[in-house]
Design goal:
mainly alpha, cell membrane
């Protein structure tokens, strides 16, 4: 863990993973001619084949049996797989429907929602600074709700599905890629059935006449899905979690910049006020976490 070369490679892996997640709207934009459901089921099928193949090569044929042998693993991974599929579906639809800025809001909110979930389900306690962060984020969401004239349901839906997904994965101690592999196995047959139904009913199936370039992009969607998670799993074993926690904001920041500067989505002064509350909350939250981490390290060294 303290080997500088390992830390350096971990930092690069984390930065690359978060950058890929942040730039992913560009990838889904290339597939805008394909219905969102078709993109998601292709993403599930090809990522399942990619991840299962990786685990088979790395751990042998018994990887699935060993993973499901853990107590409660079968139903918890089935539920987490459903949540991540809903998250993927909402995210892809939102990007191609012109809501990239709101998707970034969801992933800005997510760390603070994780704190609330920890309080509710894990009986964790927050200090005053953390409560202040949560309160500021709630003010920001309330302001945006008033400005939009509706609840920012895309952002909240993304944050909630991913937050609950993270909670389940925290409760079940299993390696990240192995967990994704089991989830992918659960989702593989339903996704394959959707593709088969589309193939027989003329609504777009395995490859629905979108052209060779789009077909290749659909296949590579599995790699695009799995690769950053593999990099993230590599990084967390070599880099302090406090550093990872700060680096995670690379992804929604890139999404936000793409939404405003590349996709030219509306972002006026009134919406900036709501985002500002959430950004301030994140700065306070991240600063408090970094200070506590360094203090703990200093005490441990002393």
């Amino acid at each position: 863990m303290n080997d500088p070369s390992h830390v350096r490679s971990g930092l690069w892996a984390a930065a690359g993973s978060f950058a890929l997640w942040g730039l992913m709207p560009l990838y889904w934009h290339l597939l805008k001619t394909v219905p969102s459901l078709q993109i998601v089921v292709h993403r599930v099928v090809w990522s399942a084949l990619f991840v299962a193949g990786w685990l088979l090569w790395k751990n042998g044929r018994g990887w699935l049996r060993a993973a499901l042998a853990r107590p409660h693993a079968a139903w918890m991974l089935a539920l987490s797989g459903t949540l991540i599929a809903l998250n993927w579906g909402l995210y892809v639809w939102a990007v191609n429907a012109g809501h990239v800025v709101e998707t970034s809001l969801g992933y800005f909110i997510n760390p603070l929602l994780n704190v609330v979930l920890g309080v509710v389900f894990l009986h964790e306690r927050l200090n005053r600074v953390q409560w202040l962060s949560v309160a500021l984020a709630l003010i920001g969401v309330a302001w945006l709700t008033w400005q939009y004239g509706r609840l920012p349901w895309i952002a909240i839906g993304l944050a909630l599905t991913f937050g609950l997904y993270g909670l389940l994965r925290k409760l079940l101690p299993i390696e990240a890629v192995t967990g994704l592999g089991v989830e992918s196995v659960y989702l593989f047959l339903p996704a394959l059935a959707v593709l088969a139904w589309g193939e027989t009913h003329g609504s777009g199936g395995f490859f629905g006449g979108w052209g060779l370039g789009v077909d290749v992009l659909l296949v590579l969607a599995g790699v695009v899905t799995a690769l950053p998670l593999v990099g993230f799993a590599y990084a967390v074993r070599r880099v302090q979690l406090s550093t990872i926690g700060l680096m995670q904001y690379i992804a929604p920041t890139l999404q936000f910049l793409l939404g405003v500067w590349f996709f030219h989505e509306a972002f006026d002064y009134e919406r900036a006020i709501g985002f500002a509350f959430i950004w301030v909350a994140l700065v306070i939250f991240a600063g408090d976490g970094l200070w506590r981490s360094r203090r703990a390290t200093a005490l441990a060294t002393a």
